[in-house]
Amino acid sequence: MSGTHKAVILARGLGTRMRADSPGSSLKADQASVADTGVKAMIPIGRPFIDYVLSSLADSGFTDVCLVVGPEHAKIRSHYGKEARPTRISIDFAEQVKPLGTADAVMAAEKFAAGDTFVVLNSDNYYPPPVLARLRPMSEPAVIGFAQSALMELGNVAADRVTRFGALDIGEDGYLRRILAKPDESMARRGGEIYASMNCWLFDSGIFRACREVAPSPRGELELPRAVQLAIDRHGMKMKVIEVRSPVLDLSSRSDIAVVEERLRDVPVSL
After folding, report:
1. Which of 98, 156, 158, 213 is the most buried (most CB within 10 A)?
2. Which are the contacts of 168, defined by CB distance < 8 A and separation ≥ 6?
3. Taking Cα atoms as reference points, which of 264, 169, 231, 86 lies closest to residue 9?
4. Integer Cα distance of 198 and 167 in angstroms
5. Is the separation of the CB atoms in 162 and 182 below 8 Å?
6. Do 10 and 120 contact (CB within 8 A), yes or no?
7. Do residues 150 and 245 lie in contact, with contact meaning Cβ atoms separated by under 8 Å?
8. Is beta strand 90-95 parallel, antiparallel or unpaired with respect to 167-170?
9. What span, in angstroms and rounded, lies between the C-alpha atoms of 152 and 174?
10. How far apart are CA 151 and CA 145, in angstroms?
11. Tens-place pLDDT, residues 254-270
12. What is the pTM of this model?
């Protein structure tokens, strides 16, 4: 099969913001029950949210998916083992024993990758199929750079939280130089569009070395963006930035649920 066909979905997060109360949010009983657990992937949006993520991957031509989960995530395993057996994609599981961070979560999927290129994405973001399809034919590491203005205008990311996502410092050759916590002064002076990372990557096996070497962040986590920066600076990895103007539906907190549910109402799901 030509192109990348493997995808890793990071579903191990603790869902701290999802477990917290959100002012003005009004959830259905089943949504509130799952939100209390923090397992955002299983928030019911007519069906578990992660069904939409998997369907988008299948629509984009991916055939093999690995869900990185924790030992306590029996509900996710049961859902795809008994209740919703996919026919368009195969699903494997990798266990991240402790929630040590996203770089550690990627390492959990090393056996699944088996030396092939693979896509990594979040379990609490819905990426449209045309965006994911941009990664499939790539033969080198790449990241989707989402225009911040589109995240606000077309998606559900408010202006006061768009800066939560790292700003990409892109060289004139189109390759990633740095991932910044927020746009620096030089980027602001240049004006123009700022592109953000929404954790939608294509990696080769070189990322595992960087994930093993990366030091904990000030938050005490082994973070994937820091591992990517290490791979660029220490190991000479070149990462192409694919700039897109596209929405992402972000399911971070309880206040997002109703908006995401409305936006996905007419989106067909086929697993």
Report:
1. 156
2. 143, 145, 176, 178, 179, 180, 195, 196, 197, 241
3. 86
4. 10
5. no
6. yes
7. yes
8. unpaired
9. 23
10. 11
11. 888 889 999 999 999 99
12. 0.92
Whether residue 250 contacts residue 157, with contact meaning beta carbons closer than 8 Å, is answered with yes
* Widest CA span in the chain: 54
51 closest CA partner among 14, 27, 76, 33: 76
Q: How far apart are CA 51 and CA 67, in angstroms?
A: 12
Record the tokens describing residue 179, joined without a space: 């991932």
pLDDT digits (tens, 9 = 90+) for 87-140: 899 999 999 999 999 999 999 999 999 999 999 999 999 999 999 999 999 999
State the residue for tokens 């800066």. Answer: 163
DSSP one-letter string for the chain? --S--EEEEE-----HHHHS--TT----HHHHHHHHHT-GGG-BSSSBHHHHHHHHHHHTT--EEEEEE-TT-HHHHHIIIII---SSSEEEEEE-SS---HHHHHHHTHHHHTTS-EEEEESSEE--HHHHHTTTT-SS-EEEEEEHHHHHHTSS--TTTGGGSPEEEE-TTSBEEEEESS--HHHHHH-S--EEEEEEEEE-THHHHHHHHPPPPTTS---HHHHHHHHHHHH----EEEEE----EE--SHHHHHHHHHHTTT-----
Those residues whose C-beta lies under 8 Å from the C-beta of residue 95, and which sit 6 or more positions away, are 68, 69, 70, 71, 108
Of 126, 156, 116, 147, nearest to 53 by C-alpha is: 126
Strands 142-147 vs 176-180: parallel, antiparallel or unpaired? unpaired
d(Cα 235, Cα 150) in Å, to the nearest integer?
A: 33
Encoding tokens for residue 264? Answer: 């996905």
